[in-house]
Every structure is written in C-alpha cells, then in structure tokens.
Amino acid sequence: MLSHDKRYSRYKMKQTIGGIKVSLTARLGQVVNLKVARITEFGYFLTDGCEDVMLHKNEAKREYTEEEDVEVFLYPDAKGRIAATDTIPFITVNHYGWAQAADVKPGIGIFLNIGIKKELLLGEEDLPAHKSVWPIKGDMLFTTIRISRNNRMYARLATDKVIEEIAVKATKKDFNKNVQGHIYRTAKVGSWVYTTEGFKGFIHESQREKEPRLGEKVEGRIIDVKIDGSINVSLLGRKQETLDDDAERIFAFLQSRNGAMPYSDKSLPEDIMERFNLSKSAFKRALGRLMKDGKIYQEEGWTYLKK
C-alpha cells in the first residue's frame, strides 16, 4: 500500500496562526514540539510556554531532561483530558493514511489502530447502512482524524475528492493490468478502490460476484482507463480462468437434477445470481462452452444434458 508520506499532508501544522498563539486544545490530533517543564514520578509535564500537558512515562519511548524539546502527538485521554505521546501515529488531523481495523463493536462502530496505544473510533453513523459490508479485523481504511465539538477524537474516511487530489493518473498502457487495492467507498451500484499504484478505480456491480467490504483488499484487472486517468476494475476472473469452473458448476447442477434445469440464457439475472452466484454474462459464457462441447442443449427456457 502507498507509504505514509508528504502526499497525504494537505496542510502543514503550525503552532501559531497569523501570529496568534494556538491553544493545546485546538491542536488535539496534531504533532507539536513542546519543552519539558518539570519531571515527576509519573512522567513529564510539557509546555508551550502558556499551557502544560502530561507525557506519562508509559507513553514515553525514552527518558527526557528538563528544558529538552520533545515532539509529541496530542490526544484526549479516557477522561477527556489532553495527553501526549512521543509515538507519532500513522495519521493526524488533515493528514490521511492507512489505519487497520482492530475491533468491531455493534452499536458503536469500528476501532482503528493508528500506531499508538489509543485506538481511533469510526462511528456507526459513518459506516455503510448494511453491516454485511462493514470492515472486519485486519481491513485497511484510508482515513484522517477529526475532532468533535466536545474535543473527542474520531476517524473521518477519505472522500472521492480527497482520493482525486492524491491519485496517480493511469494511462492506456495500464489497460488489462492486474491491480490490488482497498475499498474506500461502497454502494449498491458499485465499489470504489484505491490501488497500490495510487489509481482511483470503480468496480461496477456487474464486475464483482459479491459486494466487497469497506476496507477489504481486492484484486482485479483494469478493464477501462478514463480520460481523467481513473480506471474501471473487474474483480471477475479472466474468461479463460473462470470458464471451466463455471461450466463445471452448471454441469454438476444439471447432473444433480437428472439432466434438466429451468434455467437458460433467457433467465433473469437475479435468478441466475441467486442459484449459481454468477453474473448473467458469465452464465451465458459457460452455457456456450457446454453447448460447443456438445454436452447440453436448450429448449423452451430449460437446459438439458445431451444423452
């Protein structure tokens, strides 16, 4: 997957805006440089000259001395207080990156591992309506951090606009190449994928056997390169790879029904999908193969094995 680099930084974090000092609360979810003001039994009090924040010893990778400058990430602890860690996460406010789904909590949402001890919540309201396409543990989500009005930290998924800003443009030379990527948006009409090459891709519902999960890693091939450099992707196997398997499945089904079935190339796509988990085009290709091999024939909407 694409590395955590400057392409994902849309804004440069500053400790001042227009010369006005920004409070530590306003910098939650950001990386800041602070100075060690004093050391206690439990950790280090860091300061920006106006406010202090605790870097607990459990969150410090090494020991520090007074007056030393420390780069830390600010986050709200379990009680809502500002805390610091010198472990820098994969993502920060306005800085997108890949976060791995660590836990699924029905009624709450998905907790993401962002590289620090505190996990980031992607709330249920920001997830697909159908739980069947919710991420599972291990799936990867391209996200950033948002801070709520009550200074809590949540995940925000990348939108099409964000992906478009960082996407690499594909060329006609990329047509028919195999690609891998993770789903960053999903819908009934199709799924959107961000590939390891950085391509922004769309997978039409007809080009997938089932709807992938949000964050799921998928592998397919490029079936079209658009003028804007985005791509259309198919998750269906290449014809020569899937035809034999599909034909064998249909042939076995016919054998299990004494050589006759009420399905043909005139059957409805939804009936074919429900029975064989195949698109109508794949079903027709498999039937054509079996007819070419002299194994079946069709009559009045039914398909029969030849004796």
TrEMBL record:
GO molecular function ontology, one term from the record: nucleic acid binding
Any single Pfam family the record assigns to this protein: CvfB_1st
UniProt-listed InterPro entries: CvfB_fam, CvfB_S1_2nd, CvfB_S1_3rd, CvfB_S1_st, CvfB_WH, NA-bd_OB-fold, S1_domain, WH-like_DNA-bd_sf
Domain S1 motif residue range list: 176-236
Recorded family membership: Belongs to the CvfB family.
Name of this protein: S1 motif domain-containing protein
Species the sequence originates in: Bacillus methanolicus (strain MGA3 / ATCC 53907)
